[in-house]
Specification:
The protein has one domain: Aldolase class I (TIM Barrel). It is 42% helix and 16% strand. An eight-stranded parallel β-barrel has the order 1-2-3-4-5-6-7-8, surrounded by four helices. β3, α3 and β4 form a beta-alpha-beta unit. The chain binds orotidine-5'-monophosphate. Orotidine-5'-monophosphate binds next to β8.
């Protein structure tokens, strides 16, 4: 089985991001470039990282009217990302148009409820019920919209997997036992998420902020 870990390269400096990706290259399955990286370095930065030969997960979390999101998807074809994110709360038409506009080999996955939120945060945005219920509802909508899968926490992935057998499930909010949680609220270990059916394990700071990132990536790989 290929390594399911995608390293989140949430670094502002292009050289530092390249150096980190180079260090852990043999111990991760791909790299995730998010808003911080893309706003700072754009297409050029993505091309620079792509030279390392790892699959690229472009985490843009697109959320706008369908026409605008479809235009953005077309504008990134040339980067040939393996995975791109949109927000499920953008609705069915937006997700359908995003998928239709995506490159042939690009998986489009919908962010359901950010792993930095809990039930109280959710209630403050006017959404009632539990995170679990909300994620399952948005997963159903993403599947009906023709997307490849969703992003959710390790708390929900098992139930989502039971309901959507051939879905592609991206799980962030992962921490090896005892690691600092930081701003994440719905957290499990990488092994737990994998056992519950995660297709991709997104891991950032536990690797990028380790004294020896390659060793941290190896240690996580060994638990899977
Ligand atoms: O879409 C994501 O990747 C994502 C969704 C989510 O609900 N929670 C979440 O943490 N992420 C991303 O996953 C990464 C987690 O980083 P660490 O908390 O440092 O492991 C960051 O790049 C986040 O942007």
């Amino acid at each position: 089985m290929s390594n399911p870990v995608y390293l989140a390269l949430d670094l502002p400096q292009l050289d530092a991001a390249k150096a980190l990706a180079q260090k852990v290259k043999g111990h991760v399955g791909g790299v995730k470039l998010g808003l911080e990286f893309f706003c700072a370095h754009g297409h050029h930065g993505v091309h620079e990282i792509a030279h390392l030969g790892l699959p690229i997960f472009l985490d843009l979390k697109l959320h706008d009217i369908p026409n605008t999101v479809a235009g953005a998807m077309q504008a990134i074809h040339v980067l040939e990302p393996a995975i791109v994110t949109v927000h499920a709360s953008g609705g069915r038409a937006m997700m359908e148009d995003a998928k239709a506009a995506a490159g042939e080999h690009c998986k489009v996955v919908a962010v359901t409820m950010l792993t930095s939120l809990d039930e109280r945060d959710m209630a403050r945005t006017g959404i009632t019920g539990t995170p679990h219920e909300h994620v399952l509802r948005l997963a159903e909508l993403a599947e009906a919209s023709g997307l490849d899968g969703i992003v959710c926490s390790g708390h929900e992935v098992k139930s989502v997997h039971d309901q959507w057998k051939d879905g592609y499930f991206v799980v962030p909010g992962l921490r090896p036992a005892g690691a600092s949680v930081g701003d994440q609220k719905r957290v499990v270990t990488p092994r737990h998420a994998r056992d519950d059916g995660a297709s991709v394990l997104v891991i950032g700071r536990p690797i990028s902020r380790a004294d020896d990132p390659a060793q941290a990536a190896r240690d996580i790989e060994a638990t899977l």
